[in-house]
Structure formats: structure tokens, C-alpha cells
Amino acid sequence: MKSQSGQPLEPVGLTDATIDDEFWSPRIETVRETTLDFVHERLVESGRIENFRVAAGRTEGEFQGRFYNDSDVYKWLEGACLFLATGADDDLRERVDEVVDLIAGAQEADGYLNTYFQLVEPEKKWTNLHVLHELYCAGHLFEAAVAHREATGEATLLEVATDFADHVDRRFGPDGEDGVPGHEEIELALVKLYRATDEERYLDLAQYFVDRRGAEDSRLKYEAFNPDAIAGEPYDHVVDDGEYDGRYFQDHAPLREQETVEGHAVRATYLYTGAADVALETGDEELIEVLEGLWENMTRKRMYVTGGIGSSYEGERFTEDYDLPNETAYAETCAALGSALWNQRLLRATRAARYGDLQSRTLHNALLAGLSLSGDRFFYANPHEMGRDGHPLHDVDPNRFANERQGWFRTACCPTNVPRLLASLATHVYASDDASVYVNHHIGSEATLEVADATVGVDVETSFPWDAETTVTVTPSEPATFELALRVPEWCADVSATVAGEPVDATPGEFLRVEREWAAGDAVRFEASFPVRFLGGHPNVESTAGSVAVQRGPIVYCLEGRDSPRPLHQVRLRSNGDVAVEHEPELLDGVTTLDLPALVPDQSRWEDGALYRPAAETDAEETTVRAIPYYGWANRGPDEMRVWVDAESEGPGRAE
Prior knowledge:
There is one protein chain. The protein is of the alpha+beta class and 656 residues long. The chain is built from 16 helices and 25 strands. The longest helix is centred in the first third of the chain and has 22 residues, at 24-45. It is globular.
């Protein structure tokens, strides 16, 4: 769609914006300097890269690992290329060139490329769409290829991607074989490939995959009931008492008829992102409305306070309304990434600040928690409560539920996903159309955009996320009239703003929008306070009953055992007491901590050794307990942790 009044915003180009931010820049540099190298080493050690060498016929061997392992190589490659696009790195470029050469060498003459099928079940390609991830892996290849072309200017990998996309297009669609991916991702990737090549067939195929999902004669349903006809094995948990339950794949109804977020959370958010991309290109307002309805269901009934989504270990999925257990919260890191991508698209389509608010909540909490401060340890699942000895359940993967991050996973989607999002973070900060510049996030940065027939430089300086002061300075190449919009987060209070020294209205939860003739050096200055908010959960959420969570600015806090005078189960927060807010530059690479008023049992009343006594004879004493940002937990060694903490019976409140 063309950029016109009322039409979608376009994100700033990757090379047209740079981040220079006290909070985000160190994390991005850690990923560049540590995470990329660390992940590449694991890709080599685990045989993921070797699979391409074997498929290319350059060495002998067998396929290693899981059937979706190609996707981890593609995601690393995309992240590496995104970093190359914004800064030269000879060593990284050498590794990128090697991997691209192996990928190109492994591709078959008809464009097909999937090392699992090429090496293990070549005669059963495209027979098991619901499990074996052929289309999912293809999508990640397409994304990597677009990033590679942008970073290097070379077409090598893009030609591999378009050859494979053409193969897929010949195979599927209205004029080909019926089918949709069991794990969505190719939808958004095809739109990205369309934008890079102007090949309409790729957009058409993306739309086909979106609209064909949930058909009554579902191909995924057929595969689940015909295991002898497919490669690998079917998913047992999508057939219940002889009935097909397509919710796991979002295949239970056509997307346009769906009203609740269902199934595997990563699959779901990738589908919603791809559908939004299709709608942005085709002008499909009905589809955007459907996605907004799904967003309302998620945020009102199926999302954690951190922005984490997917509450069940079994199926890594959404379950039912208000089912948000803390101790077994799955909240997969990849699902946080998918949510961030989906919210970016909804913001572009609607210009509604709430999508930027949720994206900010998700990035600062649900996503960042998945990566250690050192850059070489990862959480797959992100529980919201943890005991001293790790997770108590014995029937779950201890590498996914633990009180310390792991160095790698058999399923390594999360370690390979985080770098590509942080490498492209600048593209989420700014968006524009012919007459507007949007600053979606308070992140220190610079950008250059073409607006109102002028080249406009934008510079953001900010103290977020610890304090709410931001200055946005514009430098148009010549005086120009356009709208400047700055998101005012819903968690701000006492908001004030000026434009060129003149006061303007600014409302939390909305964009501050100013249309005027701008000259070089004009600035929007924004100030607010971040109240410390004690949040209560909906009465239907069993796991939050009698407890509060604490938020200041976009940061959700937690208690970690080492910061508490007593075991965390003994602590009751006093939500109406005074809170001491202090920035500690040496703690966890610099964080603002909260010293919260609390009550703990009076131990002197139990010195007689009694195991039980009348409640009237049990007293409490006052104390304080330090809260740290949730993303920072488990960076000082294994420990117990709680996001939701028992509270006094008085209602939740807030303090400055």
C-alpha cells in the first residue's frame, strides 16, 4: 500500500537509524560481541551447519539433531547480517560467507532445500506439513536472504531464497497442492520477500496460506489421521477421542472467524504477524479488525503482567481465559519476540499507542529475561515464580524450567531469535508516512526519514526506562510542515510536554501529536513521573489471588531470595507504604531498585518450638525487601524468585 493519509506507517530502514541509548546499547553490543559468536560455536558443535556441508556433498555423514535445525542456522545468519548492515566486521563477514556458500551448495536443482529431508526422508518431502517444519524453515531462509542482500548488496542468498520460494509456489496454492504450514512463519517471510523483489506471487502465496488455514477439509487434519502416509510422526495431542483439535495449529477455524488466541503461542503470533503483513499490503481492514479482536482477548485474559504469553508447558500454548500459573509459566522467549513483531504491525496499521505500550512491556520484561547479561546463557521458558532448588515438577524438561539460564538447548530457537530482534531494534523506534513522523519508543537514537518532501533528521535523548525525560529534536533539510507523534506510555503520570518551548497537551496511553512547520533544532521536551504501581490480578486468575506485582515505568519487578531478609514465602508486601527508589549503577549492569515495605512473621513468637498456634497469637514485624527488574533475575546465581508476592489484605495502591 502506498503511504497516504490514513494508510499504514512504514518503519524506518535498518541503515537509516542508529541506537545510542544507555539502556539498550550495552545489550545490543553484548549480542554483537558475545552472543553471535557463542551461538555460531553451538551451531558448529551441534552439527547444524555440518548438515548443510553433508547435503552439499562436500563431506560424508548423517543428519544431526532435530528436523527443524536448519531454521537455527537461518536465524543466526539473519541476525549476523543485520549487524553487518550497520557495522563492518571482517570476522563475522567471513563466517557469514561460509554459511551462505554451504546453503547455496546444498540446494537442489528444482530449488528445494531442507537438509533433514534431503538426508533422511527424501522420498517423503511435503508429506508432513503439520509437524516437520519444511515451510517454517523456508520462511527463516527467506528472512535471512533479505537481510543478507541488505547487508552485502549481493544476490547470492536471495537467489537461493527466490528459487526455493518459486518451488513452494509451484507446489502449493489455488493452482497447486492444498496445504498450510503446521508452524507458521513463512507467511510473514513471503511478504518480506515480496517487498524485496516486487514479485506479486509471493504476496499472493502468503495470502493463500493465511486464508486457507482452518478450512473444514484441513490438510493438517488429514495428516493427523493418516500417519502411514507421512514422513516422521503425527502430533498425538491434536487428536482427542477420535476428534481433531486444530487449536494447537490455529487450524480450528478460518482466521477471520477466530475470536480467542489459541494453541502454540509462537505459531500463533507468527501467524498474526504474517496476517497483519498481508493486510498492510492489501488494505484488508477486516483482517486488521480480526487481529485487534484477538489482541484484546490475549491482553485481557491470556497474558502475563510481563507481556509473556503461552501459559502451559504442554504444547507451549495458550490454554483458557485467566489460566496464568506463575510457578509453571511457560512464557517462551520466542513467543515474546512474536508478540513484539505482531504489535509493531498493529501499531503501523492503526497508529494506536496501546500496541507500542505492549511492545515496550514485552521487550523490557518477557524478552530480555531470556538472555543473560553476559550474553551467553538463555531462558527458554520464563516462569514467574521459582523455588530455591529449581522447579519442583519432575515431568518437565529441566533445561527449560530452571532457576539458572542454560548455555544451549536441543531446540535452540530462543538463543537464535533474540539477536535478530535486538539487531533490528532501531526499525521499531521510528515509523513514518508522507506527512508524519512517529517516535514509537523512548530509546536514545537517531534517524533520517523522508517526510513532506524534506529529509528530516530526528534525534532522541532519553532517561528511559529508569526515569521519564525525553527530548526529540528534529532537523529538516528545509522548514517543512508535518506531524510529529511521540508515544506517551500508559504508565506515566504528571505528564508535561513542550514544543519549541510552548506547552502542549500529552495524555498517558496516547500519542502526543503536533502538526506544525518544523525548523532545524525544534524540539519536543517530555517529562513525567513513574509511579511505583502495586498491581492486582483479575479475580478469576487463581495464581494472583492475595498477591501483588510491582511495576515502575515499563519495568516489572520481582523479588529474588538473596535480596530478602526472609524466605520469599514469608514476605507480605505493604502496598500502601512508602517505597525507596534508588538507581544502583554497579548492580546487574545498572538498575533502579525498589525497597518495598513488607511484613514478615515475628520469629520470637515461635521460639517455644510450637508447630502450630492460634492465629491471634501470631504477630508480624515490619521490614523492607529489595525488588529488582524481572529481566535481571538469575544473573547472580540460582535463587528463588517471585513476581507476584503475597500482600496485606488492604487493596492495591501506588506510591511515587
